[in-house]
Write a structure and sequence with these properties.
Layout lengths: L1 H29 L9 E3 L5 H8 L13 E3 L16 H20 L5
Parallel strand pairs: 1-2
Length: 112
């Protein structure tokens, strides 16, 4: 009797997983045309507020908005060291930390 119960439990677990996956796919299909993730984003050190607005915008389809490749100018001192951007550098660092967290959540989502 245990073998049958075990098989039914396993079957139920697999059916639940398949049902969640189908529901997720249907939900994402509804938002297919409104993804606002980007392939590339410019981060202008003279206008950090623009980059901050990009970082703080979420994607209707994915939740976390991916900004793709981030391009920004780096200015150098005469001695060859990079000049820090006190407002922009922390924003970029924070974005990459959030991106890393979002990627871990997708990879380790127990519902998928």
């Amino acid at each position: 009797m245990y073998v049958v119960t075990g098989r039914l439990t396993d079957l139920r677990r697999r059916l639940d997983k398949a049902e969640r996956e189908l529901a997720d796919r249907a939900w994402h299909a509804n938002f297919n045309g409104i993804c606002n993730c980007r392939e590339e984003t410019d981060a202008n050190p003279n206008r950090p507020q623009d980059f901050e607005a990009e970082v703080n915008t979420s994607c209707p389809a994915h939740g976390f908005r991916r900004l793709g490749k981030i391009t920004h100018f780096t200015f150098f001192n005469r001695d060859g060291t990079a000049k820090p951007h006190p407002k922009l550098d922390p924003l970029i660092k924070s974005y990459y930390a959030r991106l890393d967290q979002a990627n871990r959540e997708v990879t380790h989502d127990p519902h998928i």
